[in-house]
DNA sequence: GTGAAAGCGCTAACAT
DNA sequence: ATGTTAGCGCTTTCAC
C-alpha cells in the first residue's frame, strides 16, 4: 500500500525530481539511466520514483530520441495460423531485443495495407515488417524504403523492391511437389489460390503476388519437363470465401476432363477444398489426390493424413525480426542471408489418378496410417 | 514525381505554415482540423501539405491530446486460432472507430502479462483489452482499473475485479456438455487443461483461471445431479506441450478404471489428445468419446467429425472492442451487457462408453472406410 | 479568423 | 557530477 492510488495527472520527472531534491535533469538521467549520476542521487531518485509510482511517458521519450522501440507488423490475415506463427516468431524475437510489436491486419486488402503502413509510419515505428498483399503494387513500400525507414518483407517478395526479404523458394518446392504428383501419374493437376486478380488466368500472366506466381511457375516447369500439356485451365484464383472455394473445387472435379489432383495454396483453402470433396462423396486419395501448403497440426488427424508443403514459418518470423532489428541498429547485413526451404511432407493424401479415364491403380498408395 | 523524395528531417507544421504563408497555429488548425480556419487558409495549407508530403507526427499529437487513438490487446497465445479470431473481431471493430491496435503476446505467462500491461500503459494506449492468464493474480489489472484507464477483460473473468468482461457462461455449457456425456452412458469423464498450477487437483481447489474452474464446476455439478461419483482423479492441469498432453492422455486411458470420455479444454490440446488416441490404436467414438472446446474448421474434417463446444469468439472480440471504445469515449455502459453463450455442436465423436453402442449421433458419411 | 506564445514530458546540449 | 536552458512537433490558451 503506497500513497493514494489514483491520481489525476500522471507523475512526471519534475515531480520525482522535486521529491528527490535534485534537478529535473538529474532525475531524468537517473531514471533513463544515461549521462552521469552519482550513486547517492540515483538512489534518492529511484526511491522517489518508486514512492510516487512514477511511469515514464514513452511518447515524450520517443519524441526526442526519435526511436519508439516499436516495430510495426503488417499481415494479411492474423486469423490464419500461418501468420499467427510467423507473428509469434517476430514478437518473441522483438521482445528479446526490447522491441514492442504493433500488429495490423489488412485482410489481404491492398488499400488497407497502404493505410496500415501510413498509420504505422505516423506512429513513428522504428521499422516495418510487411507481408505484402501484392508484389506489383509496391509504391507505398518503395516510399518507406526511400524514406530510409527499415523495412523487411516477409513471405512474399517484391522484385521491384530491393529490401531484405524473408521467404522460401516457392518455385522450387512447387516444382518438386508437382513432379511428385506427376510421377504418381497425374497430368490434370489443379491449383487454387486466394490471390485476388481481375484477369482470368492466362499463361505467363504477371501475377500480383510473387509467391503465387512462383508456385504457378514451378508447377508449369514440372509439366514442361515431363513433356506434358500444361493444365492452364485448372489454375484458379480469387478463391476467397469457403463457398467460392467449394464451388471452384466442384467445377474442377466435374470438368469433362477433370482434375485428378488438387493443390491448395494455403491451409484455409485446403479446409474448404476437403469439405467440398467430402460433400461430393469423393475419397482422398482414391478419387482425388490432395496436396496443400502449410503443415498445420490438424493435417495429421484426417484420414488419410495430408501430404503437405511445410514452411519454417516461425523461423522466418524470427529471421524477419532479426533482419529488421539489425537494420534499425544500423548494423550491416549478415554475411549470408538465411535461405529458407519448404519441404514436401509425404503423408497419405496423394495417390494415383483414377478419374474418368484410365485409372491405373498400379501405383501403390502412400503409407497409410498404421492400424 | 514531386520534389526530392528523401529528406533528412521530417516535414513539420512549421514547414507547411511557411509554405502556405500562414502562422504555425493556423496551419496546425487546418491540418488537425479543429478550431476556426477560413476556407482560403485551409485550402492553401492543405495544398502546401500535399506538396511537401506532410505527415503529422502522431507522437507529438498524442502527447498534447493525451489520446493515442490506440488500444492495447494482451492475449496469451496469438498462435491459437481462438485468439486469432477474437483479435480479428477486435481490430475490425477498432478500425471502424478509428483506433489502432497494439497486440502483445504473453505466452500465458503471468510475469509477461504484467510486463505487457506496463509497456502498453507506458505507451499511453487509450485502453486495454486483456485475456488475463490468471483470475486470481490481478493486481496489475486492479492498478489499471484504479488509475482510471479503460479496461475490458476478454474470455476470462476476474471476480475480484469489477470491470467490463466479455466471456461466455462456462459453467453452464460445461454442465450441459457433461450431462450430454453422462446421458450417453459415461461416468468416467476426463478433463484436460493447460492451466498452470502448482497444486495437484483437489475438489474445490481455487483455480487461477475462472474459465477453467467454471468448467470444472459445471462438470462436477452434472455428476452430482446425476448422483454419480465425481471423477476427481480424471481432472488434469499443466498440459503444456504436445508431449505432456499425449502422456496425460495415455495415463488417463490406461488407468485401472480408465476414462471413457475426454474433454479437451481447447483446440490445441484436443489436437494432441487425438494424436495420442490414434497412437494408442483406439477409435473415436467406439473406444473413447471425445469432446473439445473451440469449433475450429478442421474439426469437421476428421473421421468422425468432432463434437465441440463452439464459442462466438469473433463476436466476443467485437463486443470487447465496443465496450472498451465506449469507455474511452466516456459513454455510459449499454442498457444490457451482451451475454454470450457457447453451444454444444453435436457431431460424431461422442458415443457410448463400451464400444459405440450408444452412438446415436452419427451422420450419414461418418463411418466411412477409415481403414 | 488569426497569430504569438505557452506548454505536453522528456532528452540533449551547454554550462558550471 | 549537477543544473540551466533549449528544444522535439504538436495543441491550446489568450489576446487581437
Automatic annotation (TrEMBL), chains A, B:
Q: Where is the HTH lacI-type domain?
A: 11-65
Query: Where exactly are the transmembrane stretches of this chain?
Result: none
**Which species expresses this protein natively?**
Pseudarthrobacter quantipunctorum
Question: InterPro entries recorded for this chain?
Answer: HTH_LacI (IPR000843), Lambda_DNA-bd_dom_sf (IPR010982), Peripla_BP/Lac1_sug-bd_dom (IPR001761), Peripla_BP_I (IPR028082)
Q: What is the protein named?
A: LacI family DNA-binding transcriptional regulator
Instruction: List the SMART domains hit by this protein, alphabetically.
Output: HTH_LACI (SM00354)
Q: Which UniProt keywords apply?
A: DNA-binding, Repressor, Transcription, Transcription regulation
Q: Name one Pfam family in it.
A: LacI
Q: Where is this region: Disordered?
A: 346-371
Q: Which Gene3D superfamilies match?
A: 3.40.50.2300, lambda repressor-like DNA-binding domains
